[in-house]
Recover the amino acids of this structure.
């Protein structure tokens, strides 16, 4: 589904049986390793293996110093579904987007109990395959692989609108009263798309498409209203790129050729970006100032910490910590690594979940 899905699928075919021992259930509740000065709760989503129906959502409670690796199942008595892809907090709820199960799970933030499971199927009962979610005022917006964005009323938790955009949307953000959706074309490999749809939030109609790099993915907005998009290329002759869109003119104003990231996040106008080279089996993590449009650090990790295969990134909203997830071989449980703002490892928690991909924190 993503640019590297073929590679991951081949790894799964080779290793799924040999990795069974690594995927045995961990204890339901264990004591937390030393996590200096950490507060609040951290929720960690792991997508599992494609078509294996083994996504999980874990909870790390820094106050109680405990970890529940499969918190959702423990509370609700059932699994989360197949290939959970995005996790957000809004309106005192956890929102989990589960792609292959084609649903959005809405969970009470305080109790962990599901409030509603919203199914994503069209009028012909075909799965839309939702990917990412964002919010604006009293609405949630979900982009799906079937080429649509679905609008959900936050109060009723009912779907109240669907708009068509481009091929296989795989990223979504809000800026300047508009919705920006990356059209990846990822299911048409190697014939990827290269556009971002702009949707008016008042009329809920598409205004235009902006041409960006090949295979656009993650979108984020900074405090000035600029929209950043990572385009993953084709992993062959067209490399990844990172671009900035002006949300007033809806034009690409700059493409950063030296920042060929495959994923990133923005927190307090600092972008944290990483790349992974599947051929060389190498990676980098960099930081970028969204206000000055300049590189802060060419090598964020400043100690000798090594990561096998970076899979997710998140920056704490207040304390400066940066969290990276390591998928390792994609077929065994991965790790969570926490770095301070200077790029030094604060702690590492191993075997948190299979392909951990998204993090949210309640400070």
């Amino acid at each position: 589904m993503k640019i590297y899905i073929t590679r991951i699928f081949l790894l799964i075919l080779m290793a799924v049986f040999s990795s069974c021992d690594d995927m045995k259930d961990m204890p339901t509740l264990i004591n937390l390793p030393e996590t200096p000065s950490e507060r609040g709760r951290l929720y960690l989503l792991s997508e599992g293996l494609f078509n294996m129906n083994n996504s999980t959502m874990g909870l790390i409670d820094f106050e109680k110093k405990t970890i529940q690796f499969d918190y959702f199942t423990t509370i609700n008595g059932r699994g989360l579904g197949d290939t959970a892809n995005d996790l957000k907090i809004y309106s005192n709820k956890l929102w989990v987007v589960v792609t292959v199960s084609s649903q959005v799970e809405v969970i009470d933030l305080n109790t962990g109990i599901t409030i509603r499971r919203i199914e994503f199927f069209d009028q012909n009962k075909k799965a839309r395959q939702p990917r990412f979610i964002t919010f604006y005022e009293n609405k949630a917006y979900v982009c799906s692989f079937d080429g649509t964005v679905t609008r959900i009323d936050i109060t009723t938790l009912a779907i109240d609108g669907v708009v068509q955009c481009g091929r296989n949307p795989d990223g979504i953000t809000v800026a300047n009263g508009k919705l920006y959706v990356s059209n990846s074309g990822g299911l048409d490999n190697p014939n990827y798309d290269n556009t971002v749809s702009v949707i008016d939030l008042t009329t809920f109609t598409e205004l235009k498409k902006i041409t960006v790099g090949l295979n656009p993915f993650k979108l984020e907005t900074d405090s000035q209203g600029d929209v950043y998009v990572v385009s993953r290329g084709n992993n062959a002759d067209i490399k990844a790129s990172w671009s900035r869109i002006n949300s007033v003119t809806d034009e690409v104003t700059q493409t950063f050729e030296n920042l060929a990231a495959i994923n990133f996040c923005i927190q307090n106008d600092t972008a944290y970006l990483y790349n992974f080279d599947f051929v060389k089996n190498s990676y980098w993590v960099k930081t970028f100032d969204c206000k000055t449009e300049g590189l802060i650090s060419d090598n964020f990790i400043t100690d000798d910490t090594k990561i096998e295969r970076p899979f997710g990134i998140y920056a704490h909203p207040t304390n400066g910590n940066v969290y990276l997830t390591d998928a390792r071989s994609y077929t065994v449980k991965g790790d969570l690594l926490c770095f301070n703002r200077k790029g030094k490892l604060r702690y590492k928690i191993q075997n948190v979940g299979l392909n951990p991909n998204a993090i949210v924190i309640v400070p």
Notes: The helical segments are 5-15, 71-76.
